[in-house]
Give the backbone structure.
Amino acid sequence: MIALVFAMVLLQAPAVPPPPSVQSPAGSSVPGASPSSGVERNPVDLSGVVRIYVESFGTDETSKQMEAMLISSFTGSKRFIITEVKSKADAVLKGSVTQKSSQEVHAYGSATNVGTAAGSHSGSISGSHGSISGSSVGGFVANHAGIDDSSVNTETINDSQCAVRLVNSDGDVIWTTTQESKGAKYKGAGADVADKIVKQLLRDVDKRQSKPTTPIVATQPKSS
């Protein structure tokens, strides 16, 4: 009788759910694993960045102009998407910009001088039987010519420097660069810096994508 009652109690007891499983980066589940169990995570790295959110560089006019030029350069590259929704971005672009102006003075001068001088003199005295006669001739010629040419030009030079970094959703810095310029032939210093930043990112992304990747294998904690 006691055995029958004990069997009925076991049948009526609620089922214990199995331990939760944690998805590995490859999509397979590891039963009983937890975030502290040693399962490796796979945050977005540089090779996976496509959609970028540009965070404000500052409220001054120079920072706003740099943000606009970077957005234009990223869009023109055809490799990245600029989003204004931060939660949809693969990475956030942060940075700061400094710009200063200086003046360079260029002076040029040349002079040409020409001068001539000439002079002559002659005289004679003669006399006989108490009479004296004489003559004298003299002359002088002087010429001078001069040409002076000089100019002074003042040129304003704009120096621009920008330091940026890409931060993924985990808050990890995955890329950084600092570029500077005094201006290109057909563009200002700020636009030239923006183009240099995007070109550097493209080069670094291509290098990262060309490297072989090591697959991440989920590991289970050792049983004690």
In short: Strands lie at 21-23, 29-31, 51-54, 81-82, 91-128, 131-168, 173-181. The first strand starts at residue 21 and ends at 23. The first helix runs from residue 2 to 12.
